[in-house]
Amino acid sequence: MNVLLDHLPQFREGFLGTLSITAASAALALVLGVVIAGFRVSPIPPLRAFGTAWVTLLRNTPLTLLFLIAFFVVPQIFFPGTSPFVLAMGALGCYTSSFVCEAVRSGINTVSLGQAEAARSLGMTFFQTLRLIVLPQATRSVIPPMSSIFIALTKNSAIAGAFSNTELFNVSKLLSDKGFAIGWIFLWIALCYLVITFAISGLFRLLENRLEVAR
Predict the structure, then answer these.
(1) Of 24, 79, 124, 196, which residue has the fewest beta carbons closer than 10 angstroms?
(2) Cα–Cα distance list, 179 to 49, 117, 167, 185 (Å)
(3) What does pTM read for this prediction?
(4) Tens digits of per-residue pLDDT, 72-89?
(5) How far apart are CA 175 and CA 167, in angstroms?
(6) Cα–Cα distance between 172 and 156 in angstroms, integer?
(7) CA dihedral 195, 201, 206, 208 (to 10 degrees)
(8) 6-209: which CATH topology?
(9) Residues 102-126: tens digit of each pLDDT
């Protein structure tokens, strides 16, 4: 208990850091994932090709490699002076967006084709149909896998601690380097991650219950 109480400010800072990078990366992944899913089901071949390439490339690239590219290539060539938080958010958000995309695309495929055909018969464009007709109906099918994706994102955020970001893994490394018992450090870090993942799971369970159809 002394490990926690004597270093409560560090644990609090790491906890808030993990929350911040998880929330920011989740928002980026959600926006990108929905857009890329729209590309993947688009009738425009170049958009479909771009969406397929995005998902295939990111899902089959190790996350650590994406972090290395984000921190050692992107600032040198594209955006010099970018903060470590933004770079970590970009790496995590882009990586997770490929999984969000596939979850959203699976949800889109559960919507009856007649819905889209009816919308087209009314003169709606593809993107109007997607935004107003298909995606609202696909939401029920998308929520359960989204919970697992964002829980995985929370755990993946630990990699950001190795790249100059203050989060829970970074705190454990700093305290262990000072000679504190690694077992107790990992225990408190694990409990912090459990709090975050249980909160995410509870939020998505609440959304699922709100949107479920009475049978």
Answers:
(1) 79
(2) 52, 66, 19, 11
(3) 0.88
(4) 998 888 888 889 999 999
(5) 13
(6) 15
(7) 170
(8) MetI-like fold (1.10.3720)
(9) 999 999 888 888 887 888 888 888 8
